[in-house]
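Table S2 (continued). Query chain:
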Amino acid sequence: MMFVLHAAGKTDLGIVRTNNEDNFAYDTRLGIFLVCDGMGGQAAGERASKLAVDTMLRYFQQSASDGTAEVFGKTFDGVSDCANTLAKSIQLANQAICEEAERSPALAGMGTTVVAVLVDKALFSVANVGDSRAYLIRGDVMQQLTQDHSLVMEHVRRGLLTTEEAEHSAIQNVIVRALGSEDAVEPDLADHELLANDLLLLCSDGLTRHVTDQAIAEILSKTSDLSHACDELIQAAKDAKSDDNITCLLVRVVKSSWRDKLFGRAVREWRDSI
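Corresponding output:
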């Protein structure tokens, strides 16, 4: 079965921050979707997330244009070639951030989370480092596809905190894995079947730390307009007094029509960040 991908993404400064350290990008033709949440002093976080997004997107664009994208880094067992392609782009981004931090003392310590989806025919692969998340909404069920690499969630997994206690913990913003923090990075990787009418949400923790999964699902169930849904999610985070930048990227999977199959047309929607 052939699919068409519709996408819309938005990022917002929020109600507290004076600069936006989140970045996102996507290319529906290549099936790549990215959200990054930077960290670091002054403009370092913003630089790290932008560098990660640009490096990864360029990797896929170069591979599509001439097939010469660099083969780089560790290969992971137990996942598809699609997932390993995501992993290689993440490892390249990590290298780019580390090298830039070494060249510029003002950027020392900069880093970023990343959550990424790569669609390949009837399969999609998910990769993440940090606490930016990916969700799958299929029918009436919303499923979190990623695990947060945060200190508070490590405590939950070890049974030291309950999920309810974690929601009010003072260490929610402590990340235990990020791009730029080490010379080598190991993303979590997973493969999933792609079905018509699936909806994917990629987002930064400026949304998920302040808006519950149930509230997110309710917002997404009320509109089919992806751009409007992004606006509603961001507004919900602001209403909940989110103290962070807020970014969401939505991808809807649509069964292609005979016209799409005949002409090989891919529908592409680009929404500028605001």
